[in-house]
Fold this sequence. Notes:
- It is a single chain.
- The chain is of the alpha+beta class.
- Helix content is about 35%, strand content about 25%.
- The protein has helices spanning about 20-30, 40-45, 95-120, 160-170, 175-180, and strands at about 15, 50, 60, 70-75, 80-85, 90, 125-130, 130-135, 140-145, 155.
- The strands form two sheets. An eight-stranded antiparallel sheet has the order 2-3-4-5-10-9-8-7.
- Strand 2 and strand 3 form a beta hairpin.
- Helix 1 packs across helix 3 (about 95-120).
Amino acid sequence: MHVQPMTTQRPARFEAYPTDRFVEIVETWVNHPWPITTEEAKEIYESIGYRPYVPDPSLFASDLSIDGEPDSYYTQSDGYINTANITVTRRGEKGTERHNADKIEKIYKQYCNAIDTLVSKRLTRRHQQDSATEWFIDNNVNIRVGNPGHRVTFSISSPTMTQLRREEQEMGLASYDEILEDD
C-alpha cells in the first residue's frame, strides 16, 4: 500500500472568530488591570487559548494560526506591555482578497459594533478612519480594530503608549494612520 505524504496547504478562504469569541478576547484584555507585566500578558494569552511560542516569549499562536506558527504578539518596555496584537481572523490565500472583501467588511463591522456595545459606558473618545476604528476608554487604554483589506486586525495599547501616541500626534511628530493601515 502506498501512502501519500501529507502536505500542508494554506487556507484559501478568510476565517474569523465568531463575534462572541472576539468579545471574550477583547473583554479579557480590556478588563485586566493596567499596567500589565510580560508574565501577566503570557497568562492572558494562555487564558484565551493562545499557545506560547517557546523560542520567543512575546509570540503566541492562535487557533487560526497556520501550522502552529506564531500570529500574535506583544511589545514591551522594562517588563511592561506596550501593545498587544491579537489575531482574530486568518487571511485567505494571496489573490483571494477580492473574493473575501465583503465577508471581511462584514466581520469588521460586527466586531466594531460589538466593541461599541462593550465599551459604551467607558468610552472617552472614538476615532474612525477609512480602514480602522479606535476606542479610547476610561482606563486610558486604546483599542483598535482594522480592516487593511485581507483580514481584520485587533490590537490594544497600554495607557502609557496611548498617552505617548496622543502627545506625538498633538505635536505633529507622527501620523499613525498610514503606519497602522499596514498591520
